[in-house]
Design brief:
Length: 119
């Protein structure tokens, strides 16, 4: 079962590389991918903050397939968003970083023997 460091490292790699590729595709250079990576590291254990792993059956709504789908749809909408202002670009980066880190956590949890509950 992945521990906190594994969740944080996976979130950093997935989110950081995704943000860097997104910025490269738009021909931009900014500190957003680095900041987004740091935010993803901090958010990599958010599901376990909301539902602490105090017993093997701790996974409920915040570790569910339903929430995975909702957050996935939200991250997709944030990805499609084309912000016009610098402030909105930072908001988009934060949404992608936190949402991406949460998704990475749920995917990793879903690959364990206990998997994820539906709801």
């Amino acid at each position: 079962m992945p521990n906190a460091v594994a969740h944080q490292l996976a979130a950093a790699v997935a989110v950081g590389s995704g943000l860097a590729m997104d910025e490269a595709a738009h021909g931009e250079k900014s500190p957003r991918p680095v900041v987004g990576t740091l935010v993803a590291v901090a958010a990599g254990t958010l599901p376990d903050v909301l539902e602490p792993a105090v017993n093997p059956h701790h996974r409920r709504f915040f570790h569910s397939v339903a929430l995975l789908a909702v957050i996935g749809a939200g991250v997709y909408q944030a990805y499609k968003w084309e912000p016009r202002s610098n402030r909105d670009q930072w908001v988009r980066t934060a949404l992608l970083a936190v949402g991406g880190a949460y998704l990475v956590h749920l995917v990793m949890a879903g690959c364990t023997p206990r998997s994820l509950p539906l709801v």
